[in-house]
Each structure stands twice: as structure tokens, then as C-alpha cells.
């Protein structure tokens, strides 16, 4: 068997690309290999047409600011924004380094808006604005209940709407659209230029710890069918929805009790230049009752390969696949004696979610167009086509009280010795890849952190601190990263 590689990255998406990029700068002498089962990288959740590319910073996503006991809880929104600032700092460092020579290839200015209608929702949005407008990370947020003002921000939202219906919107002009597929390609390209190995059409089919503490990885070549084995000192499972099954194959006790609830989806998309020209924003509304957070309706500008399009959705559904190009057996293969109670308990507690998803699966195209017209009343179905979105797998686990829950977020699962780790979950996902991978590095390489801290601080100046805690620090950070990424402050 060949010499062990230092770092094996399973999955060719934004998470593996981010972790590999970080480790390559922290330990230039380490050998790194990426194994991707498909014929190219960034084809699942990192693909720009499989996600909304919001650059999640909680500027517009109302699910991050729930109402609790009559008060708007903004803690999650601030946390997510903080995380996005960490990602922006790292990307800015790579731009300055020359690793990301053209930031416009993956990030573009697109204002972020929240838009609601009805007296109750207007009252909610007004109070949300008041709770966020003075926070340093939400500086520049505007609020209006005036149809003329809102129309000037996003013209498609107003024509055809009832004039007696209360409406409100918030807007932050400094929002962004991020093409995580392009970013993944750029990061992996730089990694391979620096010596990392990329193996596409290589599917990992087995993970086993050896007596000397290494990991034996069995890999099947998807074209020739041959099976090979490599050993690695550290393994990261960044396989999106496929991470659960692979971590189960590893046999680490830390994965026991975890399950995954798959959610599929679709978007309506238009490339009609006349329609696209009337909307330059990402506009998020309120979710339907029972809808998962990732199904909050939104009308988004997307910029892919320099070309703007509009997406509306997502229309959530249910599939037993854990990946868009996965198997219908994925869900069943994840069942284990230790997690059956998790699946059953979480399912019974979320029957409203199950009902919602079943309803979405059977929703007609006409119903989907009507949902679009709640945002853009004059939208014509002939301008829009349905595209299949990426597959998402929500974390199912036992909470501190031993009760089964569905967790709408991401979670790093790692072995006690730090030799293997994987990422489960979905939103906010890609936008917070950098802080997630920094957390993973701290968990898996605790003896290295002190040595790495100067370099980490160089790459992410706020490392170990909080950007939004100080108004001057926040303003300077936003100014610096906006200049590097060539976007608005």
C-alpha cells in the first residue's frame, strides 16, 4: 500500500474546498487528496442552480429572527451574520494573495430585502427592523411601507397588487449573491496548483480505522469499476447528504443516534432579459405554516458566469435520496438500531412538516405559479420554467433530554481523537463554510491551534474575537472586505 496521505477530503464541494484551502496554508507540507464520486466537482449543493446563493448574512431571511413571547429574537441573525463576515475575511485574504484573482467570478452585489403583506406581518417586520437597524452588522438597513418606495427597490413586487393590502419591506443595498460552484472551482484549482490531488469519478465505499490509528479508505472507480485502497491520517467527510452514511461506515461511536431527514425541492427560473431587468434583489418572505426554514419563499437575482437570472422558490418536496444524484435507498441504508427511535420520534413530532412536504410533492404547476404571483402579481407562467434544486438532509438527533428532534442547521461530528470528522445538515451551510471549518480544525487539531493562531489571524483578522461587538471594528471590517471583494460597503 502506498504511503499514507495526510488529509483525505471526501466530496468535491465548498466544504472540502474550504477546509483543504485552510489546511494547505497552515501546513504546506501536508499531502491532500480530494475524492469526488461524480465526474466533476461542485455538482450537488455547491452547484449554483442547486441553491439560492444568498450569501447568508441574515439580512433578509426572516426565519433567523423568530418572534418569541411577543419579542423579536435577533440572536440567530447576528450569529449568522458574524459567521458570514468570517467567510468574507478569508475570501478577501485569498483575493489579496492572488488565489482568487477576480472576485466578480463568484460574488456580486445584489441588495437583500424582506417583503411581507398583511397587518400582522407588517407589524412583525417593523419590529424586526427596529431590533436590527442599530446593530453594526446591519448598518444601512432601510424600512418602508410605501408602495412607491418598495417599487423603486424591486419593481416586480408592486404592479397588480391590491392597493388596500398593507405591505412592508426592508432593504440593505450591500447584500451579495455568491456562486459557490465557481468559488469551489477556484479554491480547488489553487489547491491542485499547490500539489493537492483531485480524483473525480472516485466513490468512497468503505472507511475503517486501522490498528495504528490510520484510516483505510476503499474507493471504487466509477468508470472502470476497479476498487483501490488508500490510507490517511485525517479524513473529512464533506459529502453533503452522503455524509451520514459514510460516517456510519466509519463506525465511530459519535455518529450513533444521528439520522437524516431528506427534503427535495424545485425552483422556478427565468432568463427572460425583460423580466430579469425588473428585479435586482434577493427578496425573502414569510414561510408557510409547517414549512421548513429552507423553504422560506424568495425571489432572487442569481448571477452565474456573469449572466443574471431570476429564481423563485423553493418548492419543497420529499425524496428518499440523500443526494440529488443519489439512490432512492439512501434513507433506508441510513437506518440503524441506534437511530430508529430518532427517526420515529422526530417524524412523529413533525407531522405538520411531513404533511406540508407531501402537499408540496403533489402541487400542480398552476399552484406554483400562483405562489410566485403572491410575490410578483403580474408574473406570467410562460416566462418561467421549473428546475430541480439540490437535495437537503436535515439533522435528526437526540437533544440533551434524550428526545428526538430535527435540527435545522449544520453540525460537525468528529471522532474523539480528531482523526475523522464530517458535516451534517444544510442551511446556512455554504455561506458559513469558513467558520464551520475553523471550528472543525479546532476540534480535530487542538494541539496545533496555538502554533496556527498567527496564520489564522492573518487569514481571518477577527479570529477569536467578534466583529459586531465594536462599531468601529465592524465598520472597518466591512469596508476592508468590500474593497477586496469589489462589492458595496
TrEMBL record:
GO function term, MF aspect, one: (S)-2-hydroxyglutarate dehydrogenase activity
Keyword Transmembrane among record annotations: no
Gene3D superfamilies assigned: D-Amino Acid Oxidase, subunit A, domain 2, FAD/NAD(P)-binding domain
Enzyme class at the top of the EC tree: oxidoreductase
Pathway this chain belongs to: Carbohydrate metabolism; tricarboxylic acid cycle; oxaloacetate from (S)-malate (quinone route): step 1/1
InterPro entries the UniProt entry points to: FAD/NAD-bd_sf (IPR036188), MQO (IPR006231)
Record bears the keyword Ribosomal protein: no
EC number in record: 1.1.5.4
One GO biological process term: tricarboxylic acid cycle
Cofactor: FAD
Keyword annotations from UniProtKB, A to Z: FAD, Flavoprotein, Oxidoreductase, Tricarboxylic acid cycle
Homology family: Belongs to the MQO family.
Protein name per UniProt: Probable malate:quinone oxidoreductase
Amino acid at each position: 500500500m502506498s504511503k499514507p496521505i495526510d488529509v483525505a477530503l471526501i466530496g468535491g464541494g465548498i466544504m472540502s474546498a474550504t477546509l483543504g484551502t485552510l489546511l494547505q496554508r497552515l501546513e504546506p507540507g501536508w499531502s491532500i487528496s480530494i475524492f469526488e464520486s461524480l465526474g466533476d466537482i461542485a455538482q450537488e449543493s455547491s452547484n449554483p442552480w442547486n441553491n439560492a446563493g444568498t450569501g447568508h448574512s441574515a439580512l433578509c431571511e426572516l426565519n433567523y429572527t423568530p418572534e418569541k413571547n411577543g419579542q423579536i429574537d435577533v440572536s440567530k441573525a447576528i450569529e449568522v451574520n458574524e459567521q458570514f463576515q468570517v467567510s468574507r475575511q478569508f475570501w478577501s485574504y485569498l483575493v489579496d494573495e492572488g488565489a482568487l484573482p477576480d472576485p466578480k467570478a463568484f460574488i456580486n452585489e445584489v441588495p437583500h430585502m424582506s417583503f411581507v403583506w398583511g397587518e400582522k406581518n407588517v407589524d412583525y417586520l417593523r419590529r424586526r427592523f427596529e431590533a436590527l437597524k442599530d446593530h453594526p452588522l446591519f448598518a444601512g438597513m432601510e424600512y418602508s411601507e410605501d408602495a412607491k418606495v418598495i417599487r423603486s427597490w424591486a419593481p416586480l413586487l408592486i404592479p397588480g397588487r391590491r392597493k388596500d393590502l398593507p405591505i412592508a419591506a426592508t432593504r440593505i443595498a450591500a447584500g451579495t449573491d455568491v456562486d459557490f460552484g465557481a468559488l469551489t472551482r477556484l479554491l480547488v484549482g489553487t489547491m491542485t496548483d499547490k500539489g493537492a490531488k483531485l480524483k473525480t469519478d472516485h466513490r468512497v465505499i468503505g472507511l475503517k480505522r486501522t490498528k495504528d490509528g490510520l484510516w483505510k479508505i476503499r474507493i471504487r472507480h466509477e468508470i472502470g469499476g476497479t476498487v483501490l485502497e488508500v490510507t490517511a491520517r485525517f479524513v473529512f467527510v464533506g459529502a453533503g447528504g452522503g455524509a451520514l452514511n459514510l460516517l456510519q461506515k466509519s463506525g465511530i461511536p459519535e455518529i450513533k443516534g444521528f439520522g437524516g431527514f431528506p427534503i427535495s425541492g424545485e425552483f422556478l427560473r427565468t432568463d427572460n432579459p425583460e423580466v430579469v431587468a425588473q428585479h435586482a434583489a434577493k427578496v425573502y418572505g414569510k414561510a408557510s405554516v409547517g414549512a421548513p426554514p429552507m423553504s422560506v419563499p424568495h425571489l432572487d437575482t442569481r448571477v452565474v458566469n456573469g449572466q443574471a437570472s431570476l429564481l423563485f422558490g423553493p418548492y419543497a418536496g420529499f425524496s428518499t435520496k440523500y443526494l440529488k444524484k443519489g439512490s432512492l435507498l439512501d434513507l433506508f441504508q441510513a437506518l440503524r438500531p441506534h437511530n430508529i427511535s430518532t427517526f420515529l420520534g422526530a417524524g412523529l413530532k413533525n407531522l405538520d412538516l411531513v404533511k406540508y412536504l407531501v402537499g408540496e410533492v403533489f402541487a400542480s404547476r398552476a399552484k406554483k405559479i400562483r405562489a410566485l404571483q403572491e410575490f410578483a402579481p403580474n408574473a406570467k407562467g410562460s416566462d418561467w420554467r421549473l428546475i430541480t434544486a439540490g437535495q437537503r438532509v436535515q439533522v435528526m438527533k437526540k437533544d440533551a433530554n434524550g428526545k428526538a428532534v430535527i435540527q435545522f442547521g449544520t453540525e460537525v461530528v468528529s471522532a474523539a481523537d480528531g482523526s475523522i470528522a464530517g458535516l451534517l445538515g444544510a442551511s446556512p451551510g455554504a455561506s458559513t463554510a469558513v467558520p464551520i471549518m475553523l471550528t472543525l480544525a479546532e476540534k480535530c487539531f487542538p494541539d496545533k491551534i496555538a502554533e496556527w493562531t498567527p496564520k489564522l489571524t492573518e487569514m481571518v483578522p477577527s479570529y477569536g474575537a467578534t466583529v459586531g461587538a465594536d462599531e468601529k471594528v465592524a465598520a472597518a471590517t466591512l469596508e476592508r472586505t468590500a474593497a477586496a471583494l469589489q462589492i458595496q460597503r
